[in-house]
Amino acid sequence: MTRPWWHDTVIYHIYPRSFYDANGDGYGDLPGIIEKLPYLRDLGIGAIWMGPVFSSPQVDNGYDVSDYRRIDPLFGTNADMDRLIESADRHGIRVLLDLVFNHSSDRHPWFEASRSRPAGKYGDYYIWRDAAPDGSEPNEWRSVFGGSAWDWSEDRHQFYLHLFAREQPDLNWENPAVRAELRDIANYWLDRGVAGFRMDVINFISKSADDYIDGPRFLEFIAEFRAGLRNGGEVLLVGETPGINAERAAAYTDPDAGALDMVLLFDHLRLDHGPGGRWDPVPWRHEDLRRNMEYEQRLLKRAWPSIYLSNHDQPRIVSRYGNEQEYRYESATALATVFYLQRGTPILYQGDEIAMRNIPIEEATQIVDIESGNAYRELVQEKGLSPEEALRRVRRIARDNGRTPMQWSGADNAGFTPRGATASPWYPVNPDYPEWNVAAQDESGTVRWYIRELLALRRDDVTLRHGEFELVHEPEDSPVVAYRRRRVNGTVLVVANLSDGVVGFPFTNGSILLSNYSDSPVESTSLLRPWECRVLAENLHRVGGIHTMTVEKT
Ligand code: TEU
Q: CB count, 10 Å around CB of 266?
């Protein structure tokens, strides 16, 4: 059976403005990504997904695009993108772009024309509605970023829909001309050599009356979009799909639907949502994580999951689900192990390979992200929380946490800007950079070293890539997350104690392929130390230490 290339690879998610700044202006850029390709290759990465780098007023850090065919000068030029694709190819790395097709910027010429000439060609490119008889919004829909989802245009004397910021008007996918434009843009980038796309909030494109997302025409729109792509069958389409469960994900990625190849689900990032939702964080429960893993793996059996721990919209995972103080190394590696060895394609967010953690947010003025800033204001102004309490909630979850510059070394600005650069990074580097950086993690016992081992193990082991997933059931209050990956002649057991305590686990015989404690016994024992994880080969003939397991060729 020939498998699509992404079943056997690991994707690295780059947040361009914070990755590496080659020209010293304080913003990461495409030449910076080119410089770091050898680093990514060494880590074991087979593809990169870059957040949007297209022309944009940057109201939402590039998720507001004003020209989909042009690279924003902040990041470089179109020629830089060509060079990046070519250079990545030489390193055996494929390039995925982030298509923001649910909405554009309000400064996109399509929107400007749509607003000023309702009867013209672009009149119907966006979602316009008359005011209700009393002059108010057409309905109650709310923007993800707070407030009404409708904004009044004095020019057109109508409301337009924006499910995100008012500077991000929603495109009207019901209009075939819009769909044709978007398809042409995708083909433009495919012709330049990209391998696929991450599609921003793609399940929002078809509006429904009740829930206003995941509307009835979603699958039709995406199948049509794919059919119009050059080499459509080989292009990887990863849909970002907030709010859907695995059942719907299975329908969206069903191999027969000809729609998406994978989706990005969010339930594993809701484990710490309290009664007030995202901005009301509570401790997470292991049982919820186990159940969610089992549920998603089971429902996506016919399809193919993506596996990720965090992204640019989330706080840092080691601060969130790990222990960033006493067990930073152990918890970062245990979480990576237990997530990335599931069935699916791992998508590793930049900085997680060195256990980057949240920043100390002492004041509301440190929050520059539009969503987190709005959330803070809403908690104070509408929910009546004290500024201290609002800040306490927002600081742990703010998107800013995951967006600080990559920590390359102990040099000035964490080596994010080149030596001698006078501009400071667009966002201050995390003050822990002198100790926690890429250069410092070049030996056994560091997170980066471990992640490289982990990815190599996955790459070399067909059971870990293609084997079936089977959760090991644990008592409800157990902090252990464990599962087996199974194939005809091999089983691999993945076990992690995701807590600060010591817990028992009933191991059978097996040999250790990987562990985050250097002295994990080769013979099985029943105790797991704080955040200890082990990967064991079971039922195999003769296996030794790391990476010596018999590898079956596909
Ligand atoms: O995010 C989609 C989205 O819904 C986020 O707002 C997310 O739900 C929230 O931050 C926390 O869960 C995508 C992009 O990844 C994000 O950066 C953009 O701001 C957003 O779309 C609008 O394009």
A: 17
**Which residues 6+ apart lie within 8 Å of 243 measured at CB?**
203, 213, 214, 266
DSSP 269: G
State which ligand 1 atom lies nearest to the alpha carbon of 103: 23
Using the mean position of ligand 1's atoms as its centre, give its distance from the Cα of residue 313 in Å: 6
* Dist. CA 526 → ligand 1 center (Å): 42
Strand order in the sheet with 47-50: 262-264, 236-240, 196-199, 94-99, 47-50, 11-14, 345-349, 306-308
Q: Report which protein residue has its CA nearest ligand 1's atom 14.
A: 200
Q: Which residues of 248-263 are buried (b: 16+ CB within 10 A; e: fewer)?
A: bbbbbbeeeeebbbbb
- Of 427, 431, 372, residue with least CA distance to 399: 372
- 370-390 in b/e burial notation, b at 16+ Cβ within 10 A? bbbbbbbebbbeeeebeeeeb
- CA of residue 493 relative to chain centroid, distance: 26
pLDDT recorded at residue 211: 81
Tokens of 548: 């010596």
CA distances from 268 to 94, 253, 290 (A): 27, 19, 10
Domains and CATH numbers, the chain: 5-104+174-361+399-415 (3.20.20.80), 105-170 (3.90.400.10), 362-397 (no CATH)
- pTM for the whole structure: 0.95
Residues catalogued as catalytic: 200, 240
Q: What does the chain come to in residues?
A: 554
Regarding the beta carbon of 63 and ligand 1, being less than 6 Å apart is answered: yes
What's the pLDDT tens digit per position in 150-183?
999 999 999 999 999 999 999 999 999 999 999 9
CB of 296 shorter than 6 A to ligand 1: no
Q: Which residue has the tokens 């087996």?
A: 484
Q: What is the pLDDT of residue 92?
A: 98
**Burial (Cβ within 10 Å: 0-12, 13-18, ≥19) of residue 326:** exposed
Q: Is 164 in the pocket of ligand 1 (CB under 6 A)?
A: yes
240: CA distance to ligand 1 center in Å?
9
- For 371, the enclosing helix (H) or strand (E) is helix 370-381
Which stretches of the chain score pLDDT less than 70? 1, 520-525, 539-554
